[in-house]
Amino acid sequence: MYDYLIIGAGSAGCAIAHFLNKAGKSVAIIDRDGVASGASGAAGAFLSPLAGKKNPYNSFVNDSLTFSLDFYEKLSSESFIKKGVLRVADENFSKDSLNELENEYYSSQKLRTISSDFKDIEGFFYKEAAYINPSEILHKMIEGCDLYIKEIIELKYEDEIYSADGVKTKNIILTQGVSNSLVDSPYIGLSPIFGLRLDAKTTTKVPFNIHKSISISTNKKDNTIAIGATQQRHDSSEIFCNTSCDKCSFYVDDEKAQVEYLLNKANELIELKDLEVIKTYTGARSSIKSYFPVVGKLVDYNASLKKYPSIKNGTMIPKESLLYHPNIYIINALGSRGFVFAPYLAKILSQYLLENLEIPSEISTQKLFFKYARKKVA
Ligand SMILES: Cc1cc2nc3c(=O)[nH]c(=O)nc-3n(C[C@H](O)[C@H](O)[C@H](O)COP(=O)(O)OP(=O)(O)OC[C@H]3O[C@@H](n4cnc5c(N)ncnc54)[C@H](O)[C@@H]3O)c2cc1C
Question: Fewer CB near the terminus (10 Å): N or C of the chain?
Answer without folding.
Answer: C
